[in-house]
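User: Hey, my collaborator sent me this sequence without any context and asked if I could get a structure. I don't really work with proteins. Can you help?
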Amino acid sequence: MSWAEVGQRWKLRLVQVDWYLCLGLLFLLLVVISLSMGAWKLNLIVNDADALPIEAVAIRGERARTSDEEIQVALQDLMKRSFFSADVNQVQDALEALPWVYQASVRREWPAKLKVYLVEQQVVAHWNGDAWLNIHGQIFDAPKRSDIGALPLLAGPEGQSKVVLTTYRQVSELLKINGFKLDSLSLSPRHAWHGSLDNGIMLELGREDKMARIQRFINVYPTLVKQSKPVAKVDLRYDTGLAVGWENAQKESQ
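Assistant: No problem. I've predicted the 3D structure and written it out in structure-token form, which is a compact way to encode the shape of the chain:
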């Protein structure tokens, strides 16, 4: 066999090898294109609110102050998305932005439903006049409602709501077991405590030993009510004693 014949055979083999390589690359390219087209079409379907709409939202949990209409308004834009493209975190945020909603949990339920569980705010007091305080001592803003009964009036500096609520519970419990009801409690910017009872008596408790001072008031009250003048104010900011302001005396001074 001559060198020319050998060279010709190698050329044929190289041509054959290149042909198989081209066919393989072409097949791989077709596969990639097909997968990309499939993924693109799937993405269109998944995000198409007409193809996969959210057909229902199931609301669970006890609701006394959050209406269906408020929920519908809060979710009206989010409901325009498809079942898969709807962001449950955004749905949760939209619901928790409602004034009387404390917490919301959201999950998808195949094929076209969102399940929502709501927990409403449990209000325990008014805070600084126009806000509310929940059972955790957290401040929240919500419209006034006529269906909420009498609540204590609490007040204090920014960041002190939990401290004021805790102190109110302690002082109120001590007064309650002795026949008194605490209507309001406030903490001044200088950290002095002021309270008032449902019978109109004002209590000045100062900064320290507030529980001991409340007990001192309880102990001396039977003596105070024996006086001919009704008590208007009791100043307990003393180490061992107290000062009493009489109602008639205050009216005369005014």
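In plain terms: The mean pLDDT is 82. You can pass these tokens on to your collaborator as they are.
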